[in-house]
C-alpha cells in the first residue's frame, strides 16, 4: 500500500486532510477512519476524489476509480488524533495535533519536505517515466533545476513580507486625494459561504485605504443556508454595504448579475466570496485610473491563499494586456475592474459559460475597451480550495470545456476563423488551430555559408515531410569557400524547382543578407530561417501562418530547442541581461515553465529571426532589418519596428524546431568582436531607450532580469522595476 497526505489544515474547529492511497492493484480496497488518542473512532466526513495523476504514476493508465480522499473531522485544542488507512492487509496510523500541524506548516519543514519529496517512491516513478521518454541528460537537468529551486529562489512568503506596503505607506494612502476619485462597486455573489471566509473577505474590504467604494452582495444560498445574518450585521455597521437575498441559487452567472444590478459606481470590481483583497487594492486602481485617462479595464497580479489563511503561495506576476496569451489561458482573473458603462454595453455574465463565466466576460469587455491597464502588484489573495480550478483542474473539467467555447465565441466576434480550440499542455491551457485562408506563397529566406549538411537538413524535411506545400526557398549564398557547397547548390535546385540560390558577394552582415534575399522573394509571407534549424512539428508553417495572417499581427516566432531538447527560444524579453534575451533557456521541453508560459501562445516584444515569419508588406513598411546592426539584435530591432506600427509579435509554441546552434555560440572572444558587440548594444539602446528604462510590457517588474526563468527579483541585487545596469557606454 502507498499513500500520501498532501494537505493538512485546521479550519475553525475541524481538521481537514487531503491525499490519496492505493493498493498493489487499482482494484484494491482502501478504507479510512479517524481515531482519538485512545483509538476510539470519531465521526468524520469523507469524500472520495479523482487522482488521475496518481493513477498514471503507479498504474501507467487512468483508472475509473477515486483514489484520493478529502476527510474532515472535529478537533479540540491539545488533543491528539489519528488517521487510520487500511489496505493490502496493512494498517497505517498517522498522528495529528495542533503542534504537529503548525510544525509542518513552517518554511523549514516545507523545505525539508521538498527534499524528501525528491526521494520518495512517487518521485522515483515519475523520474523513471521521464527518463524513458526523454533520456538521462534530460533527467539530470530536471533534477538539477529542482534542487536549485530549493536554495536559489526566495520563499514567496518571505518575499511578500519584504515588498508589501508598510504601515506608513498605508497611512499615507488613507490620506491621499486624487484629482479624480472614482467610486468602485465591489460585486460579490455568495453561496453557502463558510462564515469565517466571508468575514475575512468583508474585513479586507473594510480595511481598504481608499474609501470611495460600495459593496454589492447577492446571496444565492438555498433557503435556510443564507448568510443574511452576517451580511445584515456588516450592513448595519457600514452603509456602503448593500445586499440582496435571492432565496434561490441562480448559478454563478445569475448570482453575479444580481449583484451587478445593484451597482451604482464608476467601476465594477469582481471578487469572490471567500478570497481576500490587499488593503491597498482599490488605492492602486484609483491611482492607475488617474495616471491613465480613459482607462476602461484594470487588472492586477495575484497570489494564492491556503484554506486556513495562514500561508501565501504561487504568485502570478502577469504581463500587460496580452490578447494572445488571453486566448491560451485566463491569465487576467483577479483583481479585475471594468468601467460600469462598458459592463452595461458588453452585458453581464452568461450562464451558458458557467465555470468559465468570468473568462467569457473578460473577452467581451476587453474586445470593446479603448484602454486596458495592468497594475503590476499583488492586490488579491485567491483562496485555494482543493476542489477548485485553482488547485485541482481535473475536478472542474466542465469549466475548461466552457472556456474553450468562450474562446471560440471571442474569435467569431473578432472575425478570426479557428478550426478548434483544444486542450494544451494542461487543463486550463488552450491550443487554437486556425483556418488557413487560401493557399498563400511563403518565401523561406535562408542565409548560408558552406555547411551544406545543415542546409539540407533544414530544407529537405520541409519539402518532403512538411504539411504546408506552397513554399519557395531563397538560399542566400554568403562567401562559401568549399567547392562542394556549389555542387550541392546545383543539385538541390535541380531536385526541387522551388529552391533558388542567390549570391551575396559583400562582407558578412546578417541584416543586409536577409534584406538582399527578400528582394528575390515572391511570396506574400516571409519565413526567415537559420540554416541550422530542423523541423520537428511537420505543421509548423501552418502554426505560424495561423497567427501571421491576422491583420493585427506583424511577425511570428517559433519554439526552438537545442539538440538535447532544452529550450533555446520561447520568446524574447527586452531587458534580459541589459538588452534582450530568450526566455526559459536551458529548460527541458518536458519541464513546467512559469505558469506554462513556454507552452502558451502569447505576444512578446520580440522573437528570434532564427525562425520568424512576417508579412512581406509589413517587412517593407518597416524598412526591413536595420543594417547598422550587422550581427546582434537586428531581429529584436525589427520586431520593435513592427510593434511601432501597432502590430503584434506572437510566439507560437506548437511551431517546434531544433536549432543546432551551440550553446556557447555568440561569445565575443576577440577584441574586434567585443568592440562590434558593444557598438551594437549602444545602437540598440539609443534606438529603443524607453522600453529599456520602463521595462518590457510583456514581462513584469517583479521578476528578475538576471535569469530567463521568470523567478522573483533578488531584492539584494535588483530593486523592483529597476532596469538592468548596462556596462557598455552608450556614447
What does this structure look like?
The protein is of the alpha+beta class and 731 residues long. It folds into three domains: 2-103, Immunoglobulins (Immunoglobulin-like, Sandwich), CATH 2.60.40.10; 168-414, Spore Coat Polysaccharide Biosynthesis Protein SpsA, Chain A; 442-694, Spore Coat Polysaccharide Biosynthesis Protein SpsA, Chain A, CATH 3.90.550.10. 33% of the residues lie in helices and 25% in strands. The protein contains 23 helices and 31 strands. Strands 20, 21, 22, 23, 24, 25, 26, 29, 30 and 31 form a ten-stranded mixed beta sheet that branches. The protein is globular. The N and C termini lie far apart (69 Å).
What's the number of helices? Answer: 23
The number of strands is: 31
Low-confidence stretches: 106-110, 118-122, 386-391, 663-668
CATH homologous superfamily placement of the largest domain = Spore Coat Polysaccharide Biosynthesis Protein SpsA, Chain A
Integer-rounded radius of gyration: 28 Å
| CATH second-level architecture of the largest domain | Alpha-Beta Complex
Q: Which band does the percent of strand residues land in?
A: 25-35%
Look at the structure and give the mean pLDDT. 88
Under CATH at level 1, the class of the largest domain stands as Alpha Beta
Distance between the termini: 69 Å
Quaternary structure type: single chain
The structural class is alpha+beta
Largest sheet: 10 strands, mixed
Outline type: globular
CATH topology of the largest domain: Spore Coat Polysaccharide Biosynthesis Protein SpsA, Chain A
Amino acid at each position: 500500500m502507498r499513500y500520501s497526505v498532501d494537505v493538512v489544515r485546521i479550519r475553525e474547529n475541524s481538521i481537514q486532510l487531503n491525499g490519496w492511497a492505493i493498493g498493489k492493484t487499482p482494484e484494491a480496497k482502501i478504507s479510512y477512519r479517524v481515531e482519538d488518542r485512545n483509538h476510539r473512532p470519531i465521526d468524520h466526513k469523507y469524500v472520495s476524489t479523482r487522482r488521475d495523476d496518481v493513477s498514471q504514476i503507479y498504474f501507467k493508465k487512468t483508472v475509473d476509480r477515486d483514489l484520493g480522499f478529502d476527510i474532515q473531522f472535529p478537533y479540540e485544542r491539545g488533543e491528539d488524533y489519528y488517521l487510520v488507512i487500511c489496505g493490502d492487509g496493512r494498517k497505517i496510523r498517522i498522528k495529528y495535533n495542533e503542534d504537529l500541524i503548525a510544525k509542518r506548516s513552517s518554511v523549514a519543514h516545507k523545505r525539508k519536505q521538498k527534499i524528501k519529496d525528491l526521494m520518495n517512491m512517487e518521485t522515483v516513478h515519475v523520474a523513471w517515466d521521464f527518463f524513458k521518454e526523454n533520456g538521462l541528460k534530460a533527467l539530470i537537468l530536471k533534477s538539477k533545476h529542482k534542487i536549485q529551486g530549493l536554495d536559489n529562489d526566495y520563499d514567496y512568503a518571505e518575499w511578500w513580507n519584504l515588498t508589501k506596503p508598510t504601515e506608513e505607506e498605508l497611512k499615507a494612502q488613507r490620506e491621499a486625494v486624487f484629482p479624480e476619485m472614482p467610486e468602485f462597486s465591489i460585486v460579490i455573489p455568495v453561496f453557502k459561504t463558510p462564515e469565517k471566509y466571508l468575514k475575512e473577505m468583508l474585513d479586507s474590504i473594510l480595511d481598504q485605504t481608499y474609501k470611495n467604494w460600495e459593496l454589492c452582495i447577492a446571496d444565492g444560498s438555498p433557503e435556510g443556508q443564507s448568510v443574511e445574518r452576517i451580511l445584515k450585521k456588516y450592513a448595519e455597521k457600514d452603509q456602503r454595504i448593500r445586499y440582496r437575498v435571492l432565496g434561490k441559487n441562480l448559478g454563478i452567472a445569475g448570482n453575479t448579475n444580481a449583484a451587478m444590478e445593484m451597482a451604482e459606481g464608476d467601476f465594477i470590481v469582481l471578487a469572490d466570496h471567500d478570497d481576500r483583497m490587499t488593503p491597498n487594492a482599490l488605492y492602486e486602481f484609483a491611482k492607475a485610473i488617474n495616471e491613465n485617462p480613459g482607462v476602461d479595464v484594470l487588472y492586477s497580479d495575484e497570489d494564492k491563499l491556503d484554506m486556513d489563511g495562514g500561508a501565501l503561495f504561487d504568485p502570478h506576476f502577469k504581463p500587460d494586456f496580452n490578447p494572445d496569451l488571453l486566448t491560451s489561458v485566463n491569465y487576467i482573473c483577479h483583481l479585475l475592474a471594468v468601467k460600469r458603462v462598458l459592463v452595461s454595453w458588453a452585458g453581464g455574465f452568461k450562464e451558458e459559460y458557467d465555470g468559465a463565466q468570468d473568462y467569457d466576460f473578460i473577452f467581451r469587455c476587453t474586445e470593446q475597451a479603448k484602454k486596458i491597464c495592468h497594475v503590476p502588484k499583488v492586490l488579491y489573495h485567491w483562496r485555494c480550495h482543493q476542489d477548485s480550478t485553482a488547485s485541482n483542474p481535473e475536478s472542474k473539467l466542465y469549466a475548461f470545456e466552457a472556456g474553450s467555447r468562450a474562446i471560440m465565441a471571442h474569435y467569431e466576434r473578432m472575425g478570426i476563423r479557428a478550426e478548434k480550440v483544444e486542450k494544451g499542455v494542461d487543463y486550463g491551457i488552450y491550443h487554437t488551430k486556425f483556418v488557413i485562408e487560401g493557399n498563400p506563397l511563403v518565401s523561406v529566406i535562408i542565409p548560408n555559408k558552406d555547411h551544406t549538411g545543415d542546409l539540407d537538413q533544414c530544407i529537405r524535411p520541409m519539402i518532403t515531410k512538411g504539411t504546408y506545400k506552397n513554399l519557395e526557398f531563397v538560399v542566400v549564398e554568403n562567401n562559401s569557400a568549399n567547392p562542394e557547397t556549389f555542387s550541392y547548390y546545383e543539385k538541390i535546385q535541380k531536385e526541387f524547382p522551388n529552391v533558388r540560390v542567390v549570391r551575396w558577394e559583400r562582407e558578412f552582415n546578417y541584416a543586409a543578407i536577409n534584406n538582399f534575399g527578400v528582394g528575390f522573394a515572391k511570396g506574400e509571407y516571409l519565413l526567415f530561417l537559420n540554416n541550422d534549424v530542423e523541423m520537428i512539428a511537420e505543421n509548423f508553417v501552418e502554426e505560424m501562418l495561423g497567427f501571421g495572417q491576422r491583420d493585427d499581427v506583424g511577425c511570428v516566432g517559433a519554439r526552438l530547442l537545442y539538440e538535447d531538447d532544452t529550450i533555446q527560444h520561447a520568446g524574447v524579453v527586452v531587458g534580459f541581461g541589459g538588452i534582450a534575451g530568450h526566455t526559459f533557456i536551458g529548460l527541458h521541453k518536458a519541464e513546467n515553465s512559469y505558469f506554462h508560459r513556454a507552452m502558451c501562445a502569447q505576444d512578446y516584444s520580440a522573437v528570434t529571426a532564427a525562425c520568424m515569419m512576417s508579412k512581406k508588406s509589413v517587412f517593407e513598411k518597416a524598412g526591413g532589418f536595420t543594417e547598422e546592426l550587422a550581427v546582434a539584435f537586428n531581429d529584436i530591432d525589427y520586431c520593435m519596428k513592427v510593434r511601432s506600427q501597432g502590430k503584434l509579435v506572437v510566439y507560437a509554441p506548437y511551431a517546434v524546431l531544433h536549432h543546432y546552434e551551440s550553446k556557447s555560440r555568440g561569445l565575443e572572444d576577440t577584441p574586434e568582436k567585443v568592440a562590434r558587440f558593444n557598438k551594437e548594444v549602444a545602437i540598440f539602446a539609443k534606438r529603443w531607450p524607453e522600453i529599456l528604462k520602463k521595462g518590457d510590457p510583456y514581462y513584469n517588474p517583479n521578476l528578475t532580469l538576471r535569469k530567463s526563468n521568470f523567478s522573483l527579483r533578488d531584492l539584494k541585487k535588483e530593486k523592483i522595476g529597476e532596469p538592468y545596469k548596462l556596462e557598455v557606454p552608450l556614447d
